[in-house]
Design a protein that fits this description.
three-stranded mixed β-sheet
Length: 209
């Protein structure tokens, strides 16, 4: 397995890698689609962020003491060259579970760099929304954190010991639009999201060959 073999998003959680593929029906997992959220915290602009991936972690293996339920939304600054993004996930602590308050539609941005979008990045005329593609889980495989980092990402995951939920989104060829422009798509740029169960923060970066 190498990152080149990825066609759709994959998720690591609790020692398993979960692979997704397009679905015929609507469900809780999907690529792209409307943004819906508003953002506070660090200011950025003028272009908005993009919704990249959405899914529900309920039923996944999770670190001890965690039972995250609800819908996790993964956003990224597609119009921000070399974007690094951190934002808080609103979570309500329950008796035996933690519930993502995604319906609040308000997200606090801790960090975004650069904070100014580019008119021509990744190319002029970039779509305001990434195409909406319903997804379904197609497989689960046990894997160590080191194996996941080496097999599914181009540059590894610094400090990763398996206690985070990680999403890797490859450059997807079958969208009808280019995610990264010709050169970025050819380099197979991938977006890596790391959700900290402890801090309830998503850290998003990109990697390439």
């Amino acid at each position: 397995m190498t990152p080149d073999d990825l066609s759709w998003p994959v998720v690591f959680s609790g020692g398993q890698v979960i692979r997704f593929a397009p679905a015929d029906d609507f469900g809780s997992a999907y690529f792209g689609g409307p943004l819906e959220q508003t953002f506070s915290g660090q200011t950025f602009g003028p272009e908005p962020l993009h919704r990249v991936f959405t899914f529900g972690p309920g039923g996944l293996p999770q670190p001890r003491g965690h039972n995250l339920q609800g819908r996790l939304s993964f956003f990224y600054g597609m119009r921000y060259s070399g974007c690094e993004l951190r934002y808080k996930v609103p979570v309500l602590e329950g008796v035996n579970a933690q519930f993502v308050q995604d319906y609040s539609q308000s997200v606090e941005v801790d960090q975004i760099s650069p904070s100014e979008s580019s008119a021509d990045w990744p190319y002029i005329g970039y779509p305001a929304l990434l195409p909406y593609v319903p997804l379904q889980e197609v497989s689960r495989t046990s894997i160590t954190p080191d194996e996941f980092a080496s097999d599914y990402t181009w540059q590894g995951l610094e400090g990763f010991n398996g206690d985070e939920l990680v999403v890797v989104v490859p450059a997807i060829a079958r969208l009808g639009v280019s995610m990264w422009g010709r050169s970025g798509d050819e380099e197979a740029v991938q977006i890596v999201f790391r959700y900290s169960y402890r801090d309830r923060v998503i850290h998003a970066t990109n990697q390439c060959t």
